[in-house]
Design a protein that fits this description.
Helix content is 41%, strand content 15%. The chain contains 26 helices and 17 strands.
């Protein structure tokens, strides 16, 4: 196999160009085989195999810098830089990351996981290169979906000032995770229909260069001005008008064409965009026909494309989806917003039922939030469904545009807490902290699927900003006998005990129930509380518990700093300083990839670690008590 010749970075330079098509096929087969066992991002990676091969052919690693926007399409890059044998542990704890990681290889120039940031990072590399008088190439790959993110335009605007080479590859597959939307998508669609332009432009370039003595100078001069070759043929092109040279579009599965264009791009003295047309899932029919389904996949059968892991019960996203549809039927003011993830957030059904009340704004979380603010001021009740990790991108808009105006906007925060295999860029471990610091915001988390439904109903009735955070995975069906009505700022006592009160938040209630059962076996009789609300906290309940308990234990799947536990501790220090408060949460760290159960055990959030921490705290309190008697 040709692939066996790739052992380390730059080994591809030893491969004859005539063998590249076979190498691409071998990589495609390897990725399908490997990801079918481990799960991972398949469709996006199959779409950039030829693109990656073409880039590696013209670059040298790690001297040259290649930055992948989002980064979930970097599998071929990892293979070509000598990490093929590590794919058996892809996205597993301690194994190969599903995203670029600098600590994993010097050939990974930037740790990515969110979108729209590659041009900014690349521009920083370029400026650093130029200041230090270095000569290496810097290439940023950005998808057409990521171009809906405003940060990309901030970077393009800044990059236009460059007078040295910076290559931006626009990987255009007409998809982000779902089908792309909006004006940029339509603009790029129009460019796709102008593929004949590339050949015309190259012919004009060649003709001008043939002019004796001055031909090359004419071409170079035209490249440096807005009156470029492209504008002679297609006036008013967006990128050229911004001051960037535009090359393309080019077939993203024709390596020779891409290499030719990439080499031309390296000669441009300034920022240059190379528009590459690719097909998501290329070469594997199940993935190319259902790219959204194979964006992030679990193990599957290669022949049929069917997933091997069958869903046995509704997950939290399913519960949200059904509930928001029901609320949409009951109240015509309810509208739904997502940022390029209708399937992932469960809003596809709502969009099908109420197309005029459903808005997919593309990868533009900041816009989504302020757009929701406008909808609220216009008399609607917007529900903004975004993954926890991605909502971080819109903290300023939540604070300034929604909460400062105290608007009725509901944030449905999916994938909150640990998410597992996607690792540190995707763990939703900060939302309780960054949301609860903002005035006017109500922050809640359900203990099970039933409570998620009730919280959504309550949020629609409440006239102000609300956030409901819920985890990835199967909706917990336990503790179903406890159905105390959800009221803003009120917790729920599940089991009454003595001495120690365990206050769990959201997804940790299921884990704390297991810990509670262990403590009962060990002879302790804790009070078990489903806290429900991070903000406002139930101070009346805390005052009540303080009368008969010496120790409070808070448990949350969020960083300790600024989280639920610290809010409780601050209140108790002010009002009941005699009560010891033990906060069990995620420490000051980023949590890497792995199975959620394993990660919880590693960071002290498994049921056994929680039970042991509570037992230890009570033993310490008992020793103190005996010492004072």
């Amino acid at each position: 196999m040709i692939l066996d010749k790739i052992k380390k970075p730059n080994d591809i330079h030893k491969i004859a160009l005539a063998e590249f098509p076979q190498l691409a096929e071998e990589i495609r087969n390897f990725l399908v085989e490997s990801v079918s066992k481990t799960g991972g991002h398949l469709a996006s990676n199959l779409g950039v195999i030829e693109l990656t091969l073409a880039l590696h052919n013209i670059l040298n690693f790690p001297e040259d810098k290649l930055i992948w926007d989002v980064g979930h399409q970097a599998y071929t890059h990892k293979i070509l830089t000598g990490r093929k044998d590590e794919f058996q542990n892809l996205r597993m704890e301690g194994g190969l990351s599903g995203f670029p990681k600098r600590k994993e290889s010097d050939c990974d120039a930037f740790d990515t996981g969110h979108s729209s940031n590659s041009i900014s990072a690349g521009l920083g590399y370029v400026r650093a290169r130029d200041i230090q008088g270095q000569k290496h190439s810097v290439v940023a790959v950005i998808g057409d979906g990521a171009l809906t993110g405003g940060m990309a335009y901030e970077a393009l605007n800044n990059a236009a000032e460059l007078d040295t080479n910076f290559i931006i590859i626009l990987n255009d597959n007409n998809m982000s995770i779902s089908q792309n939307v909006g004006g940029m998508s339509m603009y790029l669609s129009a460019l796709r229909t102008a593929e004949a332009y590339t050949g015309v432009k190259l012919n004009v370039t060649k003709t001008l260069k043939k002019i004796p003595k001055v031909g090359t100078a004419i071409v170079d001069t035209m490249r440096k001005t807005k009156s470029s070759i492209k504008q002679l043929i297609i006036p008013g092109m967006l990128f050229e008008n911004m001051g960037l040279t535009y090359l393309g579009p080019v077939n993203g599965h024709n390596m020779r064409q891409m290499m030719k264009l990439f080499n031309e791009a390296k000669r441009v003295e300034g920022p240059v965009i190379v528009h590459v047309l690719t097909e998501k899932g290329h070469g594997y029919i199940p993935a190319s026909s259902q790219p959204a389904r194979f964006h992030g996949t679990g193990p599957f059968d290669i022949q049929t494309g069917k997933f091997l892991e069958k869903k046995s019960a509704p997950n939290y996203t399913d519960v949200f989806s059904q509930t928001i549809c029901n609320l949409g039927k009951e109240n015509k003011k309810v509208v739904a917003i997502t940022a390029a993830m209708p399937e992932g957030t469960g809003l596809t059904a709502f969009g099908n039922m109420f197309p005029e009340r459903f808005f997919d704004v593309g990868i533009a979380e900041e816009h989504a939030v302020t757009f929701a603010a406008g909808l609220a001021l216009g008399g609607m009740i917007p529900v903004v469904a975004i993954y926890s990790s991605f909502l971080q991108r819109a903290v300023d808009q939540i604070l300034h545009d929604v909460c400062m105006q105290n608007l009725h906007v509901i944030f449905a925060i999916d994938r909150a807490g640990l998410v597992g295999a996607d690792g540190e860029t995707h763990q939703g471990c900060f939302d309780l902290s960054y949301l609860s610091m903002i005035p006017n915001m109500v922050v809640m988390a359900p203990k099970n699927g039933w409570e998620l439904q009730e919280m959504l109903k309550e949020a629609v009735k409440y006239n102000g900003p609300c956030a409901i955070r819920y985890p990835k995975g199967t909706a917990y069906a336990g503790l179903a006998e406890f159905q105390e009505p959800v009221c803003i700022g009120k917790g729920e006592i599940l089991y009454k005990g003595e001495d120690v009160a365990v206050l769990s938040m959201g997804s940790m209630t299921a884990v704390c129930k297991e810990a509670y059962d262990e403590l009962i076996k060990w002879g302790l009789n804790p009070t078990f509380v489903n806290a429900r609300f991070v903000k406002p906290i139930d101070t009346e309940l805390l005052d009540q518990l303080a009368k008969k308990h010496r120790v409070f234990v808070t448990v949350e799947e969020n960083v300790k700093s600024g989280g639920f536990g610290e809010h409780v501790a601050a209140y108790m220090e002010a009002c009941h300083p005699e009560i010891r408060v033990l906060n069990i949460a995620i420490g000051d760290r980023f949590v890497e990839q792995g199975k959620i159960e394993s990660l919880r055990a590693k960071i002290g959030l498994s049921s056994m670690e929680i039970a042991e921490a509570i037992q230890s705290a009570m033993e310490e309190e008992n020793r103190k008590k005996r010492g004072t008697e």
